[in-house]
Each structure stands twice: as C-alpha cells, then as structure tokens.
Amino acid sequence: MMNALKKSAKSLVWKVSPKLNATLRMERYKSLNTKFPNVFNDEDAQKNALLQQVYDQGFAVLPSYFDAAWCEKCIAEFHDMKECHPSFVQSREDDRIFGCENVSETFARFHDDKFLQSIADQYYGETAKINVSLVNHVEPTKGSVLGSGGDWHRDRMIRQFKALVYLKDVTDENGPFQYIVGSNTHHHAQFKADTAVTGMPQNATRLTDKDVQPLVDRDPSRLKTFTAPKGTVVLVDTSGIHRGMPIKDGERYAMFNYYIPASEYDSNYVHKKFAPVVPENFSMNKNDQDR
Ligand SMILES: O=C(O)CCC(=O)C(=O)O
Fold it and tell me: Whose CA is nearest to atom 10 of ligand 1?
C-alpha cells in the first residue's frame, strides 16, 4: 500500500515537473552518499593517502603489487578452467569467470588480500564484503567495439569500491582501464555539472563515447588511461564513469574484486545475478568435467 502510494507520488512529480524530479533524484544520491566517510584516519599514513586519492580522484595505483610468476599462473589456470569447465566461462565482450577465488589458491590470493580488504573497509566506513571476484580475458575479436565491461558506465550511483589487477602488461593497444577523473558521485557539484555537460539523465548508468566526449573536450586531463605492467593493482570508485578501452591488438587478462558494504551483501542475489558462479566446494580436478 505504502509502496503503491510512493510510486504514484513519484510518477505525479515526474509528470508535473521533470526538473523537480531530477533535483529530487540528485538530492537522493547526495543523501545516500553521506553515510560513507570522506576523511580517513588509519594509523598508516600511506593507506590514508591512497584512500584520499580514491576519494578525490576516483582511483589510486599500486605498482608491482603482485609478481609476474603469480600473474602467469593465473592466466594458465584461466585456460585450464576454460578447457575443463567451459560452462563457468561467460562470453560477452570478454570471457569471464565469476567466483574465480573458488577455482584455486592462486586466484584466492587476490580475493583474500588483507591490505585491499582493509582499504575497502575504510572506504566504506564499515566491514566490506566481496560481492564477487572475476577473472577475464579480452581479445580484439570480442572487445573491439565496446571494450571489456561494455561502454562507459557507472557501476552504481553511490560509492562503489573495486580493485583490479592486470595479469598481462597493458598498453594503449590491449584495452586499458579508463576513468573520468573526479566523476565519482560523492563530488556532488561535479556530478551535477557533468550531467549537464553530457545531457544524460542523472540516473544514467550507461553512457556512450559520444556522451562522454564533451567532458574530455572540456578538460582532456580528466581522461585517465591506465597503461601499466602486469601485477599492477588499480583501486577505483566505480560510481565514477569508467570502461575498458576498446581493444585494438593483443589480449588482456585481469582480475576484479567488487566490494560492497557487508550490510548490503545478499548471497542469493549474487548467485542469481552473476550465474554461473564457481561454487565454494568446486574442485578443478573432479572427473565429471563439463566439457
Ligand atoms: O575491464 C575493464 O577494464 C572494465 C571493467 C568494468 O568496467 C567493470 O568491471 O565495471
């Protein structure tokens, strides 16, 4: 009953004044973002600086976080999985395996990383949980039009923390991660201004290159392209506008941890939304391969 009333009030507001509706929507995002901290007081000054950078710019980079041998092992295990258990490999603009931490200890190392976990906890101001981890592989045949993850987008309209690691060196050619600096939505005034420039609705999570170009034309320094060697970790607030740049040549392998506040975690939702997710009791060597 309450919900029905709310719904009809909303549609009335929309009919009477789209402008008022837009203002209310922006105010809602602003208020939802207030539950997260905007200053960080860890005893480790270096960690605070990273958190502050993620807050201010939307990202921070940890060079040489993992070694080359680990990256190569991840790639080999990705291909083992693809060969022996293809039903867990989802093919879109890329090939991806959700729940990769359950495939092996190799993948679990990134998923279970304590430093990354503590950054996520602090960024949310509460214990974070990994909604899902994935490993992906992009090649030009698939990723050339849109890039990994689709075109430009925001993962959600309020704070969202993610860590990614490149498993192969990434150049301008093989689909680097890209971000519009400072577009994370808790910069409310910037968010409002960007929305006016793109001309997209305030709740638009998907944007085309044409929508984003005016932002870059106004200030080219806002386009950050993450070219980096394998083993580099990027910490990112994906409420900001981002994408995997369309791949021109070569291939790219990466892993992602999608953290959310633990209070929002819903295992049923995760398994439904990202299905098939590799289950906890998975065994790589089981006989009943699903080829
Ligand atoms: O693969 C990439 O570089 C981008 C991935 C992405 O946009 C996402 O996970 O939301």
Answer: 149
